[in-house]
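This part of the workshop introduces the protein records we will be handling. To make this concrete, we reproduce a full record directly below:
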Amino acid sequence: MNWYPILWLIAAIILALAELASVQLVSIWFALGAVVAMLASLLHISFYAQLVVFVVVSAAALAVTRPLVKKTLDVKKTRTNLDRTVGQTGVVETAVDNRLETGRVLVDGLSWSARSESGEPIEPGTTVEVARIEGVKLIVRRK
């Protein structure tokens, strides 16, 4: 009895399960190669020829389709509200003084704890720009 088709089927199932576990779009192409090698084994070609079929089909499928699939599935990074805050303009509500560790800035309707980028105090009512965010504090500069 020819056991090669069964072995290739088992290999294809194991590789497909590995792909389900990893979702890296690598194992699935080898599973496809194993299925084609299984079909080749049904034609009673030598095991070495089956191995060549497996390697060639797997490599070709990986090389041709993985970049296309990755591009299709590649999700653009969505900026969060926090990311959008950087670069926005705000108004100082309470004096920003790094020495006293005080200061609040109103940006886009939200009040944030703030520190000065330059280290110099900034008076209430001053228009500032958000330079970056450190923890939960906005680091601001005069606009």
Summary: The first helix runs from residue 4 to 22. The longest strand covers residues 89-97. Helices lie at 4-22, 27-41, 47-73, 81-85. The domain at 81-142 is CATH 2.40.50.140 (OB fold (Dihydrolipoamide Acetyltransferase, E2P)).
